[in-house]
Backbone:
């Protein structure tokens, strides 16, 4: 994961150089009506607070990253409220939050708070069978020389974001980021619900294929058994 002090620069790039990849028609339902969004390109489903007013693909402007920004409120290029979802958020060096030993996970959480600009990072339960990391960016962020590690300065962030990192059932490394001008209870509670609602649709396809393969195997076995039985009956 890149250091969070780079986040402001990245978002500036997004806001000044990225046209919305897809404009979404205004929602006809009530403003408070949740909206279930499915990404065909990145194969996931998530419950949103409202229908997105715009969807931005690859907002990082980096080809190796895969994901979308779901924008719920903006004034021109000023993003006021959005979810930023990445489906290849980290690599295999990040410990398995469900199976890794306690020490490895603690070291990872420590790295997030000491080196990646988060004020807190905690192991949380995404679902009864899956755990993840819930992290909040710091209000004041230190900028250190990447070669020497020496402190070069610090800046006060214009907002604080929440990130949740976890692996889906198929093993995809997911990051869901809350971008909001406020971390009021209402916004955070809605975001937490969205994280719990996340579905990896590659899992669905894999499960369907597995069930079909199992059925085909059973049908083949039944057909063979019937054929053998018919031979026995003829004898």
Residues:
């Amino acid at each position: 994961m890149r250091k969070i002090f780079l986040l402001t620069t990245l978002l500036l790039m997004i806001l000044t150089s990225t046209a919305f990849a897809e404009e979404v028609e205004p929602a006809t339902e009530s403003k408070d009506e949740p909206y279930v969004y499915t990404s065909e390109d990145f194969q996931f489903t998530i419950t949103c607070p409202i229908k997105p007013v715009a969807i931005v693909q690859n907002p990082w402007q980096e080809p190796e990253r895969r994901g979308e920004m779901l924008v719920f409120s903006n004034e021109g290029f000023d993003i006021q409220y959005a979810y930023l979802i990445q489906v290849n958020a980290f690599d295999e060096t990040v410990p398995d939050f469900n199976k890794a030993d306690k020490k490895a996970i603690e070291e990872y959480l420590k790295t997030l708070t000491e080196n990646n600009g988060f004020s807190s990072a905690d192991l949380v339960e995404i679902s009864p069978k899956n755990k993840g990391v819930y992290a909040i960016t710091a209000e004041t962020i230190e900028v250190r020389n990447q070669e020497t590690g020496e402190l070069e300065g610090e800046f006060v962030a214009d907002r604080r974001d929440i990130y949740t990192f976890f692996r889906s059932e198929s093993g995809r490394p997911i990051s869901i980021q809350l971008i909001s001008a406020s971390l009021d209870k209402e916004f955070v509670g809605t975001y937490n619900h969205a994280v719990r609602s996340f579905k990896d649709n590659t899992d669905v396809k894999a499960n369907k294929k597995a069930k079909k393969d199992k059925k085909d195997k059973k049908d083949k076995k039944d057909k063979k058994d019937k054929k053998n039985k018919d031979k026995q009956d003829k004898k």
In short: Confidence is low (pLDDT under 50) at residues 1-30.
